[in-house]
Amino acid sequence: MTAHIMNVAKDSRDARHDLRRRFSGQLYVAGDGGYDQARQAVNPAVDARPLIIAEAQSAPDVSAALTWARERQLPFAVQSTGHGTQLPSDGGVLLKTSALTRVLVDPDRAIARVGAGVRWRDVLAAAAPFGLAPLSGSSPDVGVAGYTLGGGLSWLSRRFGFAADSVLRAEVVLADGRIVTASRDDHPELFWALRGGGGNFGVVTSLEFRLHRVAGVWSGSAAFPLDRAAATLAAYREWIATAPDELSTAIVLLPSWPSTGRPAFAIRAMSSGPPVDAVDALRPLFRVAGAPLWDDFREARFAAARMPGIAPLNFDLFESLPDPVIEHMVDVVRRPGSRVGAVEVRHWGGAMARPAPDAGPIGHRHVPLSIIVEGPTEVAEALAPYATGGSFLNFLRDPSRVASAYTPDNYRRLRVLKGRLDPDNVLSVNHNIPPAPARTHRIYL
């Protein structure tokens, strides 16, 4: 063992001994049995090597770890399930909130209160017996807190808005260690920023949010030969203008359909309204697409409905689908030996585009379409000239493009608030919003 490794090990042990005096949860340092598992993120490219990993059992634990790291000017990162982790937390404190797993559902008020370590599957299971649904996404394994703070796009969002729009209250540990509750009445500026601003303004330890009375949905996919994809996408760009809010849809292009081995495309849909209305609304698209190779549309409880998602490796927003965009998407999927796994065109809009006056800073709400390319970056780059240039925080893989997730005015406002609450940018190992200079803070005091 080299002298350097011995010094790092000693520093880690000393850090654990020091933090233990004020922290009640489990602490790990390199060499401990649980260290490697605790430091893992879902993204395999993130290979974090923190000095110490702290698993919080309470908000006071979070405050203790954050204060301890700030006093020692150590990097500080927060992780629950690891789905949103894009940057490694090297040489500092990695705070885990995965043990904060309490879920409470008030069926009369249609409200859930959950800890920061809760995954959507736990909320779905708790809400379903009462005919209630959260605004969860495609995967029930994703953590509630990070998903919601980044905006939260659900298959129910066209009817009810982003998940962040349903937040009512949050318990937050600020960068200075204070524990506060943010709501429309208490710390309203912080409450605004949390609903779309990510983890920049404090460590959220619990959330309270509205549930929605959706007992059942009609959902599934239908697959068609790729030769009808261009015509169907051309029809889709016009069809979305009249789509009901209860109906969310996407068109996915695939280089190989399992039963045929040939390129295909799928129409995916979920409706929280009457199935007959959804069938009527979709009929113009199906008429263009032709006879399906396969379909699995059915009625089910929302908690039991499984809508596949596409990993947002390359994500862009679009005002429309010009012919060159359609042609490129179809061509890259149809090419022999294509390295593209899938291309997804998804319809947004609806309630997402009609925010309340005090809605959070989620940007680009009016943009109706997104395209995800699961494949080489150069395939997505060919579409970039037709995109808006905006992004969505949950789907942003490049932390240097955080400003693109907001309108210019909201980004300035977020920076000013960051300067007031975290002027030293302690909460920076994230999709970071840098603090504005102190002279600008008076604007929002």
Describe this structure in words.
With 445 residues, the protein is an alpha+beta fold. A hairpin with a 5-residue loop joins strand 7 and strand 8. The chain contains twelve helices and 17 strands. The strands form three sheets. Strands 10, 11, 12, 13, 14, 15, 16 and 17 form an eight-stranded antiparallel β-sheet that branches. The protein is 26% helix and 21% strand.
Record the SSE blueprint.
Elements: H1 3-20, E1 26-28, H2 35-38, E2 52-55, H3 59-71, E3 76-79, E4 93-96, E5 103-106, E6 111-115, H4 120-127, H5 144-149, H6 157-160, E7 167-173, E8 179-183, H7 188-194, E9 203-210, E10 216-225, H8 229-239, E11 247-254, E12 264-271, H9 275-289, E13 294-295, E14 298-301, E15 315-318, H10 323-334, E16 342-347, E17 369-374, H11 377-381, H12 408-421
Parallel strand pairs: 2-4, 3-4
Antiparallel strand pairs: 1-2, 5-6, 6-9, 7-8, 7-9, 10-12, 10-13, 10-14, 11-12, 11-16, 15-17, 16-17
Question: Can you describe this structure in just a few lines?
Answer:
This protein has 445 residues and is of the alpha+beta class.
Class based on secondary structure composition and strand pairing: alpha+beta
Distance between the termini: 54 Å
Query: Major beta sheet, specifics?
Result: 8 strands, antiparallel
Low-confidence stretches: 1-10
Shape: globular
Strand content: 15-25%
Query: Over the alpha carbons, how many angstroms does the gyration radius reach?
Result: 23 Å
How large is the count of helical segments? Answer: 12
E-strand count: 17
Task: Kindly report the average pLDDT value.
Answer: 91
Order of helices and strands: HEHEHEEEEHHHEEHEEHEEHEEEHEEHH
Helix content: 25-40%
